[in-house]
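Allow me, if you will, to draw on your knowledge of protein folds for a short while. I have a record of one protein: its chain in single-letter code and its fold written as C-alpha cells. The full record is reproduced below for your convenience:
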Amino acid sequence: MTQHRSSDRVGAGDFAAIPAPLIERDILNQEAFHKVIWLERRRTERSRKPILLMLVDMGNPLPSDAAEKDLNKLLTILSTSTRETDVAGWYKSGHVVGVLFTEFTLESRGTIVGTMTARLSDMLHRHPSFEQFNQVSISFHMFPEDWNHGSRTHPSDPVFYPDLSKRHQARRLPGALKRAIDILVSAAGLVFAAPAFLAIAAAIKAGTKGPVFYRQARIGQNGVPFMLLKFRSMYMNNDASAHKEYVKQLIAGTAERQPSNGNGNGVFKLTADARITRVGAFLRKTSLDELPQLINVLRGEMSLVGPRPPLTYEVENYDLWHRRRLNEAKPGITGLWQVSGRSQVTFDEMVRLDLRYARSWSTWMDLKILLLTPRAVWLGEGAH
C-alpha cells in the first residue's frame, strides 16, 4: 500500500475515537455521491462549516465481475471505521471510493486523518484477499480550501467540483470553438489596433513618467493568479488604501454609490480616484486601457467573454459563494455584467450575473455579448 497523500496538514486534534455503526450501510453510486458533494459544498458556502473528503483510490479500474466483491470488502472496512452520519460512495465508479465527513471541528481534522489512515492501512494489510490492492492510496481534501495566491498553484481543489468537470466535458466542442474564436479575434485585434497602441503609448509617455504598460496581478480561473496587462492609467507609486477600503465595503454590501457624470443614480465604483492621470481618465472612460488584454486572451489566461478577473485583495474579502464566479468560467475582457449594468449593480448582483453566464454560456451568447459591448463602451456608463 502506498503512503497516503493529504491536503490536510494540521496536527492531531481532540476528535473522539470514531465508533463503528450498528448497521451496514449502502454505498452511493457515482452520480448520487457527486450530488451529495455538490450539496454539502453549497451548504458550506453558506454556513462556513468545513467538510472533509477522503478518497480511497484502488489503482486501475476493477473488472465489472470483481467490482461488487471487492466493494463489499472495502465497505466492511469503511463501516468499521466511520460514523453513521458520514456518507460513502463511488467517486469514480470501479476504482475510487469516497467518504464525506461533516459536523466536525477544525481542531479535530488532524485526528480524523490520522485515525482513518491508520485503520485502513492496518485492515488492508491484515486481509490477504486485498493483495491486489498494492496500489491503494488515500488522500484527504478539505473544503473550504486555503487559497494561497503567492504561487501559481491550483488553490481551488478540483475534487470538490465534479459537477463542473461534468459540465466542461459536455461542452468540449463548444469550448474548443470558443478558444479558436479567442485566438483568431485577439490576434486580428492586435494587428488592427497597432496604430492605436502607438498613439496611446505616445500620449501616456507625454503625460507622465513611467512605463506604457502596467502589469497587475489578478486571480484567474480556479484561483490561479496571472499578470494582467493594461495601458498605465495611474501615477507611479500610488497609494491603493482608499480603493482597498472601498472594495471591502462593496463586497460586504455597505458601500455607497459614488457620483458619476451623466448618471444621477451614481455607481458602485470609486470615481474620485486621485491615482488616475488625465490621459488615464480618458483611457478608462473609453475602455482603451484594456486593449493590451488581447495578449492575455492570446496566451489563454483570459477569454474575450467571461467574468472580470479580480485583484488579490478583492478575493481576500470574498464570501465563499463568491468564489464560484472564478471556478465556473475563465475571466474575460467583456461579459454579461459589462453589458447589463457595469458598476450600477451591487457586488452580489454582479456575481449572480457571472454565475448566470457560466451556467447558460453558449457560442451564440458570447456573440451577443460581443455585439452589445461597443454600445456599452460608447455610452460609458459605469466606466471610470
About this structure: The mean pLDDT is 81.
